[in-house]
Task: inverse folding
């Protein structure tokens, strides 16, 4: 279906949703819809109270989160309009989905590829614990060696310095470095590749593989990443650098391939109890962190913009797309030359409800881009999550981006970066459905 007809479907479904309500429910349906919206608002507020309180207030909030939507559904059923509301909601969901699909348009052009000469002495570091044992499951070490790579499999029983291993390999003549492991390990070895200006290879053997996904690699079968050894092309991608304290020591800082997180998430993962019982630790720590009763109070400077006291800040190597409900999906490009900055600052239940009910948009959320970000605090040291690794850094913490710093060797044939759904914009959908149609009609008559 063409974009024009998809836009027309969105308009038709969007108009049909309220028509169905009025046609089968009359004016009573409008009252019930207002009640439904109030129920959603109460539910969202209940989630906020549940996260920011303990004891009996949290218990009442949980009760509200459960009872509010059930009461709304019961009211609809009692009025005999439950099916009408459900049909209307389905039509509205179809309208939103079709509209976003129409606005997405053609697939955006990918990052430019460069031809690459096959590496003569590739050196790959593999973590057998990553991704639940993907290195062994997909026989990655065996397959890589068959393709001429030297492979070092980390000892699961001990902690080894992967950066030092990579530097020693370069000294011994390695002309390509690669990692089968998590994003934190990828970043450490990528930094060595940048130091020596040699290609870096990503093997998607981690758990989430965010970096591999945004490079368009196959995350389901990491063995396909090894095709880069024999039939690869090169991408030039940006890298993030994070540095704690005064920059007087001349250090360039630590590399991050995905993101650095500050505030609530970073505080929680630093807790010794987090690994043993994640859910309980989060519920115990969130009330004090969200209300600033504990944890450092952050201050963020992004160019001329100053953010005071956000609860959470995410600084990413290139901006994440915000087409999904969580607000963080993936990055369509890794070569835009800017950091993405997402800051959350929710002061009360009303702002929390606004944020949840508007699909991650509201006063509590700030999204900007910049080449440099400074995060300060009322504490000399703050926790930071860097590519999933829990660190502590001296304040102020500086994040910057270096354009095209990393040469990445990827297979010539790979799945590609998934396309983000476009944010819904009814004006653009209407213009696409109507204006394009007239233009096509005029063209056909000439």
Result:
């Amino acid at each position: 279906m063409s974009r024009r007809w998809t836009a027309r479907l969105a308009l038709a479904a969007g108009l049909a949703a309220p028509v169905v309500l009025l046609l089968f429910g009359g004016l009573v349906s409008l009252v019930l819809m207002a009640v439904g919206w109030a129920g959603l608002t109460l539910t969202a507020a209940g989630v906020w109270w549940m996260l920011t309180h303990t004891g009996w207030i949290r218990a009442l909030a949980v009760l509200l989160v459960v009872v509010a939507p059930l009461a709304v559904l019961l009211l609809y059923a009692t009025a005999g309009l439950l099916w009408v509301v459900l049909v209307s909601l389905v039509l509205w969901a179809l309208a939103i989905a079709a509209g976003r699909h129409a606005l997405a348009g053609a697939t955006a052009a990918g990052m430019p590829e460069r031809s690459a000469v096959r590496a003569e002495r590739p050196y790959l570091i593999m973590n057998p614990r990553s991704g639940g044992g993907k290195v062994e499951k997909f026989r990655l070490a065996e397959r890589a060696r068959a393709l001429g790579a030297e492979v070092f499999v980390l000892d699961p029983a001990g902690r080894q310095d992967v950066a030092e291993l990579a530097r020693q390999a370069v000294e011994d003549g390695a002309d390509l470095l690669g990692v089968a492991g998590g994003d934190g390990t990828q970043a450490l070895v990528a930094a060595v590749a940048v130091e020596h200006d040699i290609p870096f290879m990503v093997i998607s053997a981690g758990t989430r593989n965010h970096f591999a996904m945004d490079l368009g690699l196959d995350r389901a079968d990491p063995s396909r990443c090894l095709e880069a050894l024999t039939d690869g092309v090169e991408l030039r991608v940006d890298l993030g650098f994070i540095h704690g304290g005064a920059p007087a020591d001349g250090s360039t800082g630590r590399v991050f391939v995905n993101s650095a997180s500050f505030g609530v998430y970073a505080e929680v993962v630093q807790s010794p109890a987090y690994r043993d019982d994640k859910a309980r630790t989060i519920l115990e720590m969130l009330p004090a962190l969200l209300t600033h009763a504990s944890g450092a109070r952050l201050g963020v400077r992004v160019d001329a913009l100053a953010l005071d006291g956000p609860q959470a800040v995410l600084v990413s190597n290139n901006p994440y797309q915000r087409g999904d409900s969580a607000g963080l999906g993936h990055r369509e490009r890794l070569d835009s030359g800017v950091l993405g900055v997402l800051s959350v600052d929710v002061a009360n239940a009303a702002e929390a409800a606004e944020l949840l009910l508007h699909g991650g948009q509201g006063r509590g959320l700030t999204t900007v881009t910049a080449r440099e970000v400074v995060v300060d605090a009322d504490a000399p040291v703050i926790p930071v999550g860097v590519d999933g690794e829990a660190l502590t850094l001296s304040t102020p913490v500086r994040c910057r981006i270096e354009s095209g710093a990393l040469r990445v060797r990827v297979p010539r044939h790979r799945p590609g970066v998934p396309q983000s759904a476009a944010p819904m914009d009814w004006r653009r959908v209407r213009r696409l459905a109507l204006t394009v149609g007239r233009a096509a009609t005029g063209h056909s008559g000439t």
DSSP finds twelve helices and 17 strands in the chain. The radius of gyration is 25 Å. The chain has a mean pLDDT of 85. Residues 127 and 158 are 11 Å apart (CA to CA).
